[in-house]
Amino acid sequence: MKSSDLVKSLSITNLANRRAAVAERIRTALDLLTEAEQLAKTAHLGFPRLVLDDSHALRGAQALTGEYASRADAQKAILHTVDAQGWDYLLSESGLRTFMDARAREQWHQQIREGEVPELTAANIEATFTELHGARGDMFERGVIQCFRRLSWNYRTNQPFRFGKRIIVTSLVSHGFPNHRAINELDDLMRVFHVLDGKPEADHRHSVYYLVDGARQQGQTEAENDYLRLQWFKNGNGHLTFKRPELIEKMNLILAKHYPNALASEAR
User: Fold this and answer.
1) Ranges for the DUF4942 domain (predicted)?
2) In angstroms, rounded to a whole number, what is the distance separating the alpha carbons of residues 143 and 106?
């Protein structure tokens, strides 16, 4: 599948060309700054310097705790900011972020934080999107397994396990607000439900966070949608009740596929 099939609302070629134009102007601007610095130096004038902080981000001259940025480092740091936001935008517009499980999303955000994203060219976009789309099925099944491991209160290593009618979600709410860790895991679960139900995957902008936070703002401690009912308590924990037993059975079949001996032992 081509990246243009995944991101229909924009032209990948046009975006890559605009990025190249931005990069060219950044190089020109840095060249002019270097020239201005040399002129100031020969005239015994002052000139502001850019520094890199511990995260390798550019800061102004007042950030004297960092190290002065070389011409190459400054260009790299600026283009990283350009590319990182571009990749984030592409993931949102394409819908690829929607089916990435919590682990895949965290890995991606870590790569962005550490500047390990590839240059935003048409070829790199094509290769990255093809790889992510090809891993769709693996991420989906991994999401089912990880959902169970993290959400099921009665999970024990090497014991028969399956999704039941209810589970306990620890720290669903923290200091009165939805806990992003728990919410990410519930969003993985919602993603699974949509796929198993034959429906389009829910957009990440309509996540469980908005469901819980909307109820919280109205002074409620319960919320529900088509697939689950949530109730949370003063200790922050939540009780989750599944509303579609037939989808739970489908998830258990996925667990059985990866851990056949576990569910087989339960049948004996």
Assistant:
1) 80-260
2) 13
Q: Pinpoint the alpha helices (H) of 54-172.
A: 71-94, 96-99, 102-113, 122-134, 136-151
Domain ranges in the chain are 3-134, 138-267
Burial of 190 (0-12, 13-18, 19+ CB in 10 A): buried
Half-sphere exposure in the Cβ direction for 228 (13 Å, CA)? 27
Q: Residue 238 — φ and ψ, nearest 5°?
A: -125, 145
**158-190 confidence digits (pLDDT tens):** 345 678 888 888 888 988 888 888 888 888 788
Residue listed under structure tokens 């569910």: 263
d(CA 253, CA 104): 23
Closest CA to 32 of 24, 43, 21, 20: 24
Per-residue tokens: 32: 């002019």
pTM here is 0.64
Backbone φ and ψ of 81, nearest 5°: -60, -45
Given a contact cutoff of 8 angstroms between Cβ atoms, the answer to whether 64 and 105 are in contact is no
Strands 238-242 and 222-224: unpaired
The average confidence (pLDDT) of the chain is 80
Work out the widest C-alpha separation in the chain, in whole angstroms. 88
CA gap 34, 69 in Å, rounded: 12
Separation between Cα atoms, residue 230 and residue 240, nearest integer Å: 5
Q: How far is CA 205 from the centre of its chain?
A: 12
The secondary structure element, H or E, covering residue 166 is strand 166-169
